[in-house]
């Protein structure tokens, strides 16, 4: 027996048990090696004019013998001499494919796609096999040779018989392992079936550009006997037939102009297990320091588990048509986690197991380009197919909003213009840009209200008051909405009509526009303001003075009301807002009532750690109820003032979609009042 030309036992043990994390990739590695062998012979035919060889003459065959517990991978490629068996298989981590690639790099054509790089893929066979035989006959040689090893100390090389050039790799599988001490066992028998081998081929090696063939069991109807009666029932028989089980030509390598939309749709549905066509398909080829092909799909509907912790995002990563990772999460950001697709590049630097990338900068470069392409496609959908974009946003808009919130607003520049919200004035979904361009010239902020339904929000006194002043209000109804706006703080509205604070400058601009000049434009940062916050500042100076006068003139009344509410509010004051409501709740600081409500439903929320909003009870001094309060205070009936304060506060909570702290006491107070 010959010894391996390294610290064999340690290195083989490392490769079998540590380098690869998934046993089933052994077939991917062996097929990749076979593909390289076929490519080497094809390359030789391009340089040796005496060698007549057509690409379709070359193939790879996979077979199994259940009784003998063997799996065989055969090719009719370049083959190996005894010296080459010694050099390539006897020296661990020596890559004959890489050596060939280096030697022929200047002369290589697009038809040659060498996969192997590290020289360790062959040894992945020992993850499932207790012994491996390699029978090979080099092209142009009369003799064949066999290499055998159990993957422990060494190997043997001897003479063998093989009719034609090429290589057979025969794996004798290990015995099944039982579970021990809670550790799962290993079922090696699962590889000894036609279905399992076909599945591994189509999953990992479907786009190797040589035919991968297998004897496949099929069924056919037997001929009807001549003497069969009217009650004859058709009979069927099984037979086997050699079939190519891989697709060979990946759809993402074809020009998009050469592929029909229905072909893309069919690929998407069959590959990503969806029954609906994708909303959009994005296909592009990138060149430069990093060359790759990308085929991306924006689904037509959201998968049921999209927002669950079990959902796995990521694009399929291929290298030279061989699948490396089924879902490479780093290729797509979380807020585009719904995107499905494929990235294929021969230039990425893979680690030794070819399961992950070595250089983050390459991954980062691809991910950046992918993100830009997705964003551009969504912008095109928004501008040119609004109905489809609104359907998309209904499915996936929450993820875009969360992308802004989770990045503390850092991603707002790229995502804010993709957001849609309901316009209370226009009664339709609008973008922030559309809202900004429809604003009156005196409006300096974007106003919104947050709650659980459009219907309730549109009837709220505070919203109606803002609308009555001629300003639109965005109605936010998803739990993430207000958190997103809090993270953004402002929105940069581009290409707005310039607002001139100086009268002379404004008159000059108006005169120029009258003479046919283009109106001056500017980008403007607009604050995002909750209409229920205390700093909306839409009131006129006269309204503010009247409210301040009422607050000061009835200071004792408001103190009595605040005391009656027992720390539920920061203060009670007369309101300057134009509403028909007797009273309503606003908040001071960043925490709104809606945010408090959302946080209170969290899994870890308790009475002790629950953040509270700083509430203000604003009383309408023009409402008849205010006169009753003033009268009660003046007559010294503090009990009535306290009871009325509680009723006004609780009904204001109900308007906000929140229950009073004591619904029973509220109901009793209403009955007593009646």
UniProtKB/TrEMBL annotation:
One MF term from GO for this chain? ATP hydrolysis activity
Q: Where is this region: C?
A: 598-674
Q: Which GO terms describe its cellular component?
A: cytoplasm
Q: Does the keyword Phosphoprotein apply?
A: no
The answer to keyword Membrane applying to this record is no
| Amino-acid positions noted as binding ATP in the UniProt annotation, renumbered to this chain | 29, 33, 75, 80, 88, 95-96, 117-122, 167, 354
State its role.
Answer: Molecular chaperone. Has ATPase activity.
Family (UniProt): Belongs to the heat shock protein 90 family.
Q: What is this protein called?
A: Chaperone protein HtpG
Q: Which organism is it from?
A: Coriobacterium glomerans (strain ATCC 49209 / DSM 20642 / JCM 10262 / PW2)
From which lineage does this chain's organism come? Bacteria, Bacillati, Actinomycetota, Coriobacteriia, Coriobacteriales
């Amino acid at each position: 027996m010959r010894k391996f030309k390294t610290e064999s036992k340690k290195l083989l043990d490392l490769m079998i048990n540590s380098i690869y994390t998934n046993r089933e990739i052994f077939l991917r590695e062996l097929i990749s090696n076979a593909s390289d062998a076929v490519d080497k012979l094809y390359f030789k035919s391009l340089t040796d004019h005496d060698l007549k060889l057509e690409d379709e003459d070359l193939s790879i065959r996979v077979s199994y013998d259940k009784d003998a517990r063997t799996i065989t991978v055969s090719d009719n490629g370049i083959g190996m001499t005894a010296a080459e068996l010694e050099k390539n298989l006897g020296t661990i981590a020596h890559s004959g494919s890489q050596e060939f690639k280096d030697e022929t790099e200047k002369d290589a054509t697009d038809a040659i796609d060498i996969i192997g790089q590290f020289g360790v893929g062959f040894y992945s066979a020992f993850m499932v096999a207790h012994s491996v035989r390699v029978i090979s006959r080099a092209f142009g040689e009369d003799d064949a040779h066999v290499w055998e090893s159990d993957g422990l100390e060494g190997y043997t090389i001897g003479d063998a018989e093989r009719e034609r050039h090429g290589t057979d790799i025969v794996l004798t599988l290990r015995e099944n392992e039982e579970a021990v001490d809670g550790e799962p066992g290993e079922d090696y028998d699962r590889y000894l079936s036609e279905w399992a081998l076909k599945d591994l081929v189509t999953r990992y090696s479907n786009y190797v550009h040589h035919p991968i063939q297998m004897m496949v069991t099929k069924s056919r109807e037997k001929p009807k006997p001549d003497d069969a009666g009217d009650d004859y029932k058709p009979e069927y028989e099984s037979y086997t037939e050699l079939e190519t089980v891989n697709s060979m030509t990946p759809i993402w390598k074809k020009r998009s102009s050469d592929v029909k939309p229905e072909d893309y749709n069919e690929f998407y549905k069959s590959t990503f297990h969806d029954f609906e066509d994708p909303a959009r398909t994005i296909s592009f080829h990138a060149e430069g320091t990093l060359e790759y092909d990308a085929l991306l799909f924006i689904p037509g509907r959201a998968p049921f588990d999209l927002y669950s912790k079990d959902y796995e995002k990521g694009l399929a990563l291929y290298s030279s048509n061989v699948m490396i990772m089924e879902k490479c999460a780093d290729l797509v950001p979380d807020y585009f986690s719904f995107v499905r697709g494929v990235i294929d590049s021969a230039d990425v630097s893979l680690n030794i197991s070819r399961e992950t990338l070595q250089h983050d900068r390459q991954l980062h470069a691809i991910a950046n380009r992918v993100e830009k392409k997705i964003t551009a496609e969504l912008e095109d959908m928004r501008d040119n197919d609004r109905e489809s974009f609104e359907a998309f946003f209904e499915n996936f808009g929450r993820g875009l909003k969360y992308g802004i919130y989770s990045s503390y607003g850092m991603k707002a520049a790229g995502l804010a213009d993709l957001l849609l919200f309901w316009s209370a004035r226009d009664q339709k979904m609008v973008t922030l840009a559309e809202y900004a361009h429809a604003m009156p010239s005196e409006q300096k902020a974007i106003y919104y209200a947050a709650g659980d339904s459009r219907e309730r929000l549109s009837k709220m006194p505070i919203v109606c008051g803002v609308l009555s002043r001629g300003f639109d209000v965005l109605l936010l109804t998803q739990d993430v909405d207000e958190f997103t706006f809090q993270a953004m703080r402002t929105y940069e509205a581009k290409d707005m009509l310039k607002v001139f604070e100086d009268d002379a400058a404004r008159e000059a601009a108006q005169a120029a526009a009258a003479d046919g000049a283009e109106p001056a434009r500017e980008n403007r940062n607009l604050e995002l303001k909750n209409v229920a916050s205390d700093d909306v500042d839409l009131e006129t100076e006269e309204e503010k003075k009247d409210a301040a006068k009422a607050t000061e003139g009835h200071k004792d009344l408001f103190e009595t009301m605040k005391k009656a509410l027992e720390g539920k509010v920061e203060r009670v004051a007369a309101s300057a807002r134009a509403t028909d409501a007797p009273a309503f709740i606003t908040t001071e600081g960043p925490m709104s009532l809606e945010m408090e409500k959302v946080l209170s439903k969290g899994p870890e929320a308790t009475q002790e750690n629950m953040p509270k909003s700083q509430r203000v009870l604003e009383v309408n001094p023009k409402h008849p109820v205010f006169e009753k309060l003033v009268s009660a205070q003046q007559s010294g009936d503090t009990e009535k003032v306290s009871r009325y304060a509680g009723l006004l506060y609780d009904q204001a909570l109900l308007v906000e979609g929140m229950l009073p702290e004591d619904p029973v006491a509220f109901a009793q107070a209403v009955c007593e009042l009646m």
